[in-house]
Every structure is written in C-alpha cells, then in structure tokens.
C-alpha cells in the first residue's frame, strides 16, 4: 500500500462553478468530482434576471449547498470569477451591499466544511 497523500486518500472533493448572464436569461454550470473520481454535473437556469457576478455567486452557493447536503467535509472550489474568488479568499473587501450579502452567505456555508479552498482558474479551464 502506498503511503502518499493522494486526493483520494485525503477525501478531497472538487467543485467547479461557472455562472453566466445575458440579456434574456441567466444560469450556471456545476461539476462536483468525488475523491473516487465520479462526477455529478448540474446545469441551472435561473428564474430571475441576474448580472454575471450574481450568476457566479449563485453558482457557488448552489454548489456548496449540494456538497453540504451530501455531507462532504473537504472541498476545493474552482471558479473563473476573479471577484468571487478574491472576496471568498479575503483578498478583496466587499464594497457593494449585494456582494457583501452573497459573501456572508458563502462564509456561512463554508463553516460546514472541515477543509475549504478556493482557486481562480482560467475561463477555458472551468466547467
């Protein structure tokens, strides 16, 4: 038996989130990958008008809510949103009230996990 710290042995789940908005509709895509390599994919269509930043937040919140209900304890989130990643990792400070509310919601969800990480990825590498 190998004594390394592979993703599987650590129990680390990976969540990729991406929100999108245009004039007529908005939505999100999520991909959740277990330590064993099985993948759950979700496509969301929002029933409300959202900005691109709001769609990114909604994608993250939905993904974290799903992983929380699956009782995931270790999660690494990837997103192509510089704003969301920087706010969640506390590199930026929320200036708009709406962004502060989204951030507070995510901070509350983060408390459900023993380990939580967030990474900024290139748009081409995301969901």
UniProtKB/TrEMBL annotation:
**A GO MF term:** nucleic acid binding
Q: Identify the stretch annotated as signal peptide in this record.
A: none
Coiled coil stretches, renumbered: none
Quote the InterPro entries the UniProt record gives.
RNaseH-like_sf (IPR012337), RNaseH_domain (IPR002156), RNaseH_sf (IPR036397)
Using the record's annotation, list all stretches that form the RNase H type-1 domain: 18-126
Please name the PANTHER family in this protein's record. Answer: RIBONUCLEASE H
Q: What is this protein called?
A: RVT_3 domain-containing protein
